[in-house]
Structure formats: C-alpha cells, structure tokens
Amino acid sequence: MPRPEDVNPHNFSVHQIIYNDGEFSIVWGKWQEEEMRLAMRWNGEGTNQGYPKTFGNPVWFLLPVEITFPILRGMLGVDISDNKVIAQIIQQLNFKSTDKKENYSASSWSDDLKEATRNAINGNMLDFMPRGNKFHFKNINSSYGYISIDDLNNGILKIVDLKTHDEILFKNIDNLINAGWVID
Questions:
Q1: What average pLDDT does the structure give for the chain?
Q2: With a threshold of 0.70, does the pTM exceed it?
Q3: Distance of alpha carbon 15 from its chain centroid, rounded?
Q4: Are residues 9 and 87 in the same domain?
Q5: How many structural domains are present in the chain?
Q6: Which pLDDT tens digit goes with each residue over 99-129?
C-alpha cells in the first residue's frame, strides 16, 4: 500500500495531505507545474497499489475545480482532517461561486443570508443543520469560523475564527452579522 506522500506521478506533486485515514486520502497538490488542485485516492492495502492507477502505478484522481471549495468546507471539523491546512487552502482559493447566495467576494451579504443566520441561531434549523456539534460561518473578509452547539444552547455567541484562531464574543445576533459573519 503506497503512502499518500509517496504517490507523486510526473504531472502531480503532493504539497499537503489534508485527510488520510489509512484507506483513503485527500491531498492538495500542483497539477502540471501550474495549478493547485484537490485530489483523492484509495490507498490500497498490503501489496495492492490502491486506486486510481495508470499502467499499474498509483496516481491521484483530480477533483473538478468547481467542487473543491464545497469539499474543503465540508471537511472542516472532521477529527482526522488537518483543519489548519484546510483553512489555509480555503484562504488561497480565488473561488467564484455561481450561487448568488454564496458570493464570497461580496462586500456585504444578501438580506436572505442574514435572515437565514438569524433563524439558525434562534433555533429554526430547517435550512442549516450543524456539522458535528458546530455551526459553520463565513465572513466577508474571507475567513471561516464556527459556533459550538453547546455555546449556542447556553446563550453564548462565540465564533472561533479558523484563520486567526481568535475567539470572538458577540452580544447579539445583529452584532455578529454587522461584523460580517453569516451562516455557511
């Protein structure tokens, strides 16, 4: 079974391993010496080279650019993911969303997204389900963070910023939104 760091075909070099549970890996690497891409593979076991392979040699399956950001965002908070590296990669991405609600380059969020944030924090969680025990947030300054369900249940509005690792306390929902944070 090849280790993820040992799978470096001539056209893709691994820069960061962001997930590896032994059987499956996801990495951030350089494709054809010009473009950073997310890639994945099943590692295999024993003498099995895993999948994908080209001419019996292990290679990486490159993920489409359009789904890179949603996959990374979904990996935040997963225990065996490297959350610090994921947050750094998200910061590097110059992601342009086709969904108007998720225009990450916007200087201000839509009224619908602000209202969805209020609803989620107030306990109306029909549209936004927590991942693990956290609600994930995004900021107009291209940062990401979370509020734990335990804090929300205790009336504490504390966002942990994944970029700076700061814990930011807010008096109320409007202060949180005015600081540029909305539900992700």
A1: 79
A2: no
A3: 17
A4: yes
A5: 2
A6: 333 444 333 456 766 777 777 777 654 445 5
d(CA 156, CA 17): 34
Neighbours of 176 (CB within 10 A): 22
Its domain, for residue 179, covers: 100-183
Cβ distance 137 to 143 under 8 Å? Answer: no
Residues 117 and 73 in one domain: no
Structure tokens at 29: 């690497």
CA distance 143 to 91: 7
Place of tokens 């963070």: 145
Which of 46, 63, 92 corresponds to the end of one domain?
Answer: 92
AA letter at 131: R
Asked if residue 87 and residue 52 are part of one domain, the reply reads yes
Q: Which long-range contacts (CB under 8 A, 24 or more apart) does 34-40 make?
A: 36/92, 37/12, 37/62, 37/63, 37/65, 37/68, 38/62, 38/63, 38/68, 38/71, 38/72, 39/12, 39/63
Q: 78 in helix, strand or coil?
A: coil
The neighbour count for residue 157, using CB atoms within 10 Å, is 17
